Every structure is written in structure tokens, then in C-alpha cells.
Amino acid sequence: MSGPNTSSPKVRKLLYFPTSLPDETLLSRVSRCHLLSGERKDEITFLSLFGVAGTAVDFGTAAPPPLKTLADRLPGPSSMQLGALLAANTFVPLVMPIADCLDWHRPAARFATCNCCAQCLFEDEALVGVPYLRRAHQLPGVIVCGKHGTKLIDSCPGCSEHFDARGKFLAAPLIPCRCGWDARRGGPTIFGAAAEQGFAANAQTVLEQRTQRMLVSDLVKFFDLHIMPTKRGIRQEGVMFRNLLAERISQLLAEGHSAAEAALAAAKVIASTKEPNWWIATLNPKVLEERARRRQAVD
Predict the structure, then answer these.
(1) Phi-psi bin for 287: left (phi > 0), alpha (psi -120 to 50), beta?
(2) What is the pLDDT of residues 247-282, one digit of tens each?
(3) C-beta of residue 232 within 8 angstroms of C-beta of residue 164
(4) Sign for the pseudo-dihedral over CA of 74, 76, 79, 82
(5) In terms of CB atoms within 10 Å, which end of the chain has fewer, N or C?
(6) Closest residue by Cα to residue 85 from 137, 17, 133
């Protein structure tokens, strides 16, 4: 009689996921997936894509931790899919350090989620067949379109209903609003100041240059070190918290990350909790490196 099956369950791959449009936001891309799927309930699509409820996916961050689940469910190697998503649809290329800066302590940035230019929506509808949201319009401080100079909108020009709703996918402006407004009709053409347009254009250039120069492997590494550690399950108190954190540190060292990188990842987790700084005395990089060398010698 054979023993119990202890193999991990097979990940169910998605049958369809739309190709990214140029500079498209993650929220826009997954919303298009939801609309094209024909599924009526947002919750079901969120579970299908991310494995969690919509309220657990924060599109206003550099990248939401559940993005790893989406990458796992796309065809092909998970790490390659994750890297492609990070480069094409998230703000990780903008927030990660250019060089290997061990003293990197940039505060977590917040991004807009549904800013859009009515003129871009109109042109995209004509050019690619669908209006969509662009990352460049979500950057902090950007309030006008760098191309057209018009003020960005985040609600329907017809009924003033906000495009974004917590835990929900986008409908308008990707499809006509319930009030009848359609992106093909265009929108308000209120122009911003020249300085505002210049700032927006420069911000877009920075994002484009950072995206082009970042290696996919570095994007994935940054995601693993600075974003994944804050997922649910790590933020627990007491012994369970310490065990999970110790597990995470061991995993990073086993994957070849330096002790300093492991320490930074641990500090990121600690900073997101109310856990006291018990870890400082045990997280000396020299001690961790010595432990890693001993493990390699044993292996």
C-alpha cells in the first residue's frame, strides 16, 4: 500500500491573460482581463488572478505582494513572468535603487490608481481599439498629461463618479460609464501650466529610462527582498513572528543573498510591524556570514 501523497498541489495556470499595452498600469491590465473574461463578479476574478480578495490587492503601491501569485499562474517560468509584470506594469523600476545601495531606506511611495488623460483615452481607442490607464499618469506630483498638457481626470466627466473603487476592477473609462459617457467622445480639455506639463514629461522620461536600464533579475530580487516580506503571515507577533522571520532570513541566505541583504529584508519587515527591536543583537552581518560559511562547509 502506498503512502500518502505529500506532493504540493499543482498550480492552476490561467487560460488567458491579455498582453500589456504600452506603459499600462497593473490595475488597467487586470481590469481588461476581467472585462474580457465575461465574469460578472469581481471577487471571483481576483481569486483567480491573485488568490486573495480584491481588498487585499493595493494598486497604489510600487507593486502588490499578491503579484507573485499572478506570476505563478501565468504560463512559463514564474520568475520570468514576475519580472515581465514588474517591468511592464508596476512602479518597481522607479523606486528601486539604481546601484546596489545597502543603505537604501526610501519611504514607501504612494501612487495614483486611476488618473487618466481624456485625449490619451480617445487616441488609444482609435489606435489600439481600447482606452487604458498609463503608469506615467499615476506618478506622484503629476497632475497633467506630459504629452497633451491637459489636466488629468479620475472620475467620469458625465456623472462625476470616481473610476476606482476599493476591491473592484475598473469599468469606465475602459468601457462606457453607466451614465453613457464614452472615452470615444473625449473629455474636458482644461490645460495645466507649462511647468506642470514639463514636470509630467520629465517624470515619464525618468520612468521610461529606469525601466529600460533595469535588469529583470534585479526587479525580481528587489520584489523578493522589499515587497514580498510584508505579505500576510509574516506580520505576526510573538514566537510565531520570530519563527517566520527566521525562516525568511534562512531562505534568503540559502538562495545566495548576502547577509546584509537579508538584514535589510528583515528590517523592512520589522519596520512594518510593532514588534520590538529584539532582532538587532542577532542580526549582525558578520555573524550571519559566518553561519552561512559553516553551512556551506557542511554541505
Answers:
(1) alpha
(2) 777 777 777 777 777 777 776 666 655 544 434 434
(3) no
(4) negative
(5) N
(6) 17
Q: Which helix (H) or strand (E) holds 210?
A: helix 194-213
d(CA 8, CA 48): 19
Q: Range with the lowest mean pLDDT among 51-65, 84-98, 137-151, 222-236?
A: 222-236
Per the listing, cell 488567458 goes with: 16
Q: How far apart are CA 84 and CA 71, in angstroms?
A: 9
pLDDT in tens, 190-206: 999 999 999 999 999 99
In 3-state terms, what secondary structure has residue 101? coil
**Rg of the chain over all Cα atoms, to the nearest angstrom:** 22
Q: Which residues contact 159 (CB under 8 A, 6 or more apart)?
A: 177, 178, 179, 181
- Find out whether 139 and 203 touch, Cβ atoms under 8 Å: yes
Q: What is the dihedral of CA 220, 221, 225, 231, to 10 degrees?
A: 20
